[in-house]
Amino acid sequence: MDKKVNRRETLKAIASAGASAVALSAGACLRSPAVASDLRSKKVKPTMPKEAPASAIQSVTPLGFQWETLDPFLFCVHHNDHYPAGNGSFGPAASLAGRNLGSDFEPRDGWRMYHGETVPGFPQHPHRGFETVTVVRRGLLDHSDSLGAAARYGGGDVQWLTAGSGIQHAEMFPLLDRKAKNPVELFQIWLNLPSANKMVDAYFSMLWNPSIPRRVVLDGLGNPTELTLIAGRYDDTRAPAPPPKSWASESDSDLAIWTIRMSPGGRFVLPAARSGTNRALYFFSGSGLRVAGVAIPDYHRARLRPDAEVILESGSTEAELLLLQGRPIGEPVVQRGPFVMNTADEIRQAFADYQRTQFGGWPWKMTDPVHGPSGDRFARYIDGHTERPG
Known about the structure:
Blueprint: H1 7-16, H2 33-41, E1 57-62, E2 66-67, E3 73-83, E4 121-127, E5 130-138, E6 140-145, E7 150-154, E8 158-162, E9 167-172, E10 182-192, E11 203-207, E12 214-218, E13 224-231, E14 233-234, E15 237-238, E16 256-262, E17 267-270, E18 278-285, E19 289-291, E20 294-295, E21 300-304, E22 310-314, E23 319-326, E24 334-336, E25 339-341, H3 344-357, E26 378-380, E27 386-387
Antiparallel strand pairs: 1-21, 2-3, 3-10, 4-9, 5-8, 5-10, 6-7, 6-9, 7-26, 8-11, 12-13, 13-16, 14-15, 16-23, 17-22, 18-21, 18-23, 19-20, 19-22, 24-25, 26-27
């Protein structure tokens, strides 16, 4: 993977491509290229616990701000911000003095503005060549894009966006409650596209919370483990259909995106996947977890052998995990900020195309649109029809 680019170089490249309207770094969309660069330069070598059965755990690594992933995934970020009450302009009713507005990734007071200067979030920025899967567990996210589509979603909803040949979008976190705190928790996962689909038309679909299946599995003592299936299947429970050109739509991709919530003292048997699949568990919340009998520290990733059942055991508190698995695409990956292609020439073409077309332009009056004071969730698609959950 070609990643030898820092934030200043990326900004210079975008500026030379005529992207003056993009008031944020090219590697936006829920991450900071500067932070990503730091993480790459300080990678922690994966370790293999001495007591780990070689047949179950391949490595264990700590999680940073940007979570390392395996092909076909590009990266994952877990955002968990404890925003204060809103100020009437959908931003925080708190002083912003001392924050590096426009690039505020320091979790001061338990929250960050990211690339937002009034409203937290990620104003107008482009993408090409991959997909974003955004899982909003708490709070709201306002989506606006260059095709004129818009959405407000949260509370367990998921947006699956195929950037394909190119799109601009904004992702803002409106703080609607002016009397109480506005917590926001979400995952954003970047999923690669195979070369055959990198230039398909941009497309997004909403997986509303009520349509996402949850499966509760009891262990021998009656302790529940709840699975939330965003992609893939468990036994006879299947996730909603992904976008049609996604790698997840390939019948043999073996792709799964699950969250796993284990009750204290619970036990769950993770079924085997196919041989050759890449599989990783991210332990992001809780105080104790054993995987195949091995103690995994909190906020760590365990890379698993795919074709073996794995026993998970939680400690004295609830444990939450994210499962990402899929058959690797196995193609070259060249990334420059917001564009992920197969060759350097394709990256240069992406910048040239963005300069020429702006991926449809920007039909919104602001770079950070917010969809009003109502908390109602909705999605308005490019054909004009509007959809609501339930």
